[in-house]
Amino acid sequence: MKQPDYTKEILILVLLLIPMAYLGIIWPSLPAIIPTNFNIEGVPERVGTKRDFLLLMIFLFFTNALIYFLFRYIPKEDEITDSGEVSHKEFYRIRFLIHTYQAVFTCIIIFMVSQGKPFAMERWAFIGVGLLLTAIGYYLRNLKPNNYVGVRTPWTLQSTEIWTETHRMASNLWLSAGIAVIIAGFFLSLVTGVFIIFFIAIVLAALPYIYSFRLFNKDKG
What we know:
Layout: H1 6-26, E1 33-38, E2 44-49, H2 50-73, H3 88-114, H4 121-141, H5 160-184, H6 190-219
Antiparallel strand pairs: 1-2
Helix pairs in contact: 1-2, 1-3, 2-3, 2-4, 2-6, 3-4, 4-5, 5-6
């Protein structure tokens, strides 16, 4: 069994923490009132506070953290073997790309707010998360059985057929969720959007797991 590369794990955790560290450094200089939506004439239609912005950043941080734990701890290392078609190197490359995207995207939002740039804050945050979910969903569709990436349940790892069916379902689910989050960003308030996306995250993690279990028991008769 391939052991985790702790140096690379630390680097990924650093990527996870960089946006919050950046926010902490520039927090005193952020404006107390932050315009979050502008009409075509450049007049703010909605404003928020630093506390509202902090809530948005916490939401982005926990979204990134959820993705980290899904990749790192599901399933546990002692539940898998070392015969997957996706290499250990590819496993870390995919994770680096995802967390780099999230870190850069979040830091850009923080920088724009610190500079007083007019933009729809919630909209861009939800669009960023939605694009990430959509990209992961597209990637899952043709993912081959392996021990590192994907819906790695005890049942998908035992059967190529269950793996394929589960990932087809998971791909459609993540793609649909990503598109829904993007659309929701144009209509929902920050607080409502955060709670809805937390619910979506639970669904994205739970449904493929349950689906693979049902397929396994169906095959067993």
